[in-house]
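Subject: Interface between my chains keeps coming out wrong

I've been trying for a while to get a sensible model of this assembly. When I model each chain on its own everything looks fine, but I need the whole thing in one frame so I can look at the contacts. Pasting all components below, labels as-is. Any help appreciated, I'm running out of ideas.
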Amino acid sequence: MGSKENGCAGSAQVDKGVDFANYFCTYGYLYHQKEMLSDRVRMDAYFHAVSRNKHHFRGKAVLDVGTGSGILAIWCAQAGARKVYAVEATKMADHARDLAKENGVQDIVQVIEASMEDVTLPEKVDVIISEWMGYFLLRESMFDSVICARDRWLKPDGVMYPSHARMWLAPIRSGITDQKMEDLNCAMNDWHSFVDETEAHYGVNMSVLTKAYREEHEKYYLKTSLWCNLDPNQIIGTPAMIKEIDCLQATVDEIRTITAQLVLPINADRSRISAYAGWFDVQFKGSEQNPAKDEVELTTAPDADGGTHWGQQVFLLNPPIRVNEGDKVLVSFQMSRAKQYHRLMDIELISELELSSGKRLPPITTRVSIE
Amino acid sequence: MGSKENGCAGSAQVDKGVDFANYFCTYGYLYHQKEMLSDRVRMDAYFHAVSRNKHHFRGKAVLDVGTGSGILAIWCAQAGARKVYAVEATKMADHARDLAKENGVQDIVQVIEASMEDVTLPEKVDVIISEWMGYFLLRESMFDSVICARDRWLKPDGVMYPSHARMWLAPIRSGITDQKMEDLNCAMNDWHSFVDETEAHYGVNMSVLTKAYREEHEKYYLKTSLWCNLDPNQIIGTPAMIKEIDCLQATVDEIRTITAQLVLPINADRSRISAYAGWFDVQFKGSEQNPAKDEVELTTAPDADGGTHWGQQVFLLNPPIRVNEGDKVLVSFQMSRAKQYHRLMDIELISELELSSGKRLPPITTRVSIE
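Reply #2:
Try treating it as a single job with all components included. I did that and got this:
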């Protein structure tokens, strides 16, 4: 069906029109760009990463993958880049071009409106910069395009901005699981009344759809991750790293499915794990041959002083698991791309509680989608 | 780009995958079906139209275009139809099949999961029934598929359910226009602070995007129609009929662009037209050769006792027009399909106030999208 992405080994086969309707369209709005540009944690990290490591940019060629409004490209130019190729798939490219001109770097920043996979550059580049991170790092699967860009256009001694990325998981307490269970019960009560009324008024018995209705609503209320900026005191165990990605080396195969065996020591007494929280951080460390002078980190972990527009992704556990300090949760984690649409994710978590006595309780399997 | 709809003359050329992502996907959810099935005005109208006109159905072949959960098809079977072909493009078809079985009409109702345009039936039908109406009647452009079905599968003396449809426009008073103007001002004040902060913290001047940001937000706040169930006392002039459609005769060309010259007499003193409201009604009158025994009407006009899930579409006038009893508003109305996506609509209203003295004020042009 339809035209396919091409060129990059390992890239998903997807109808481009559908992908634009489902995904890229959002990035064509300035209100959405402004939301990202107003995220101070995000902005500070990229700004400092570039402005405190000018040696990576001075006189160099840079590629910005998914430039959006073009701000990263402009910073690279301001840091002394000789040339910045700023690739953007949406009409936001026009605004990026205007912005580069307004800021006097139109001779350095060349905005190219195209899918990264379709672009041909006149030279290889010294730096690839990109803000490609989605919820829980990999939602949107945009890193595929960065890998494609790197394999084609980065010089052998080139540098990636960011250079590394990590995914984290932690057990949390939250009233949200009880709330969502109650919402589901309300929805089902409402459904039962609806079935009764439809039979009474219109002579059609709808009860055969009750199971499907419940499944649809369980998926919505309980089996879809929630966006949240949590308070750090909701975390009741030591976070575990799921995965570290070296942006210079990673392959699409490596990130298509993420699996990990995690140990989460509990540090709260008489508590309940009502959910897991997932988040990410990225580092700007340069490369081994060409390290950063000033390493910068961008984290989306729970923060009492506020959060990022990424927040954390919350995966509900239903029912919650009662825990005590000294217990450990052993989690078998797997994340893969949704079958129907490669930019969304399906997660499976198998939780096994190991009590401080050493006794293990039966494993509990939780499946949740990031939509 | 992609596979195209085919077969029906005049049908829009559209990528089917994109169309599914943008449109059909919604109808695959039971929560959405339930919303429609809980609309008592809608349900009563179709239920009475069928159950009070059994002579149209007894022993007949019926086609239900876009059957959804299948309820119309089941009613037709209960009214005595010999065969009901129930066509549905989404996976909701599975539920429709279950529901037909549960209600004992599985030998009569044959659910076919396909686009109407692609279906081949074993016979021509006596009745086509469909609930094809979108906001302000024609949003979704689903009537195209009904026309296609009619031209291919309805017998020469066949009947359409509904048989007729009408679009209406009325001047209304509402605080919503002032509210939306204020929302826009707030958004722009926020933008200006954002521009200042971005320059101060990150050395990039964003002011070149101010015009585009304002345009994007004017479109969102002022130039996109609003869904509303209005109170009848908000109507300050006599509603005018924009268009009447005879479902047996209508062509896609006839509904692709709707134009009308309307006269709206004002019946409220010292008031303001802050918006126009658009709605529709449909009639179940059968055909000339084969009339309904009991004519039924479904209206989505403002109703003090509640409304329908369609509500009315509200088109803001900015600034509002001051009017007095005895004035008339002459409206030149045009609605066409959005260039980028044929299921959405663009509307142009040229308003000319004729005072009771006979004096005419200069025309005011309003453009608004139904999204």
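Reply #3:
Confirming on my end. The longest helix of chain A spans residues 176-202.
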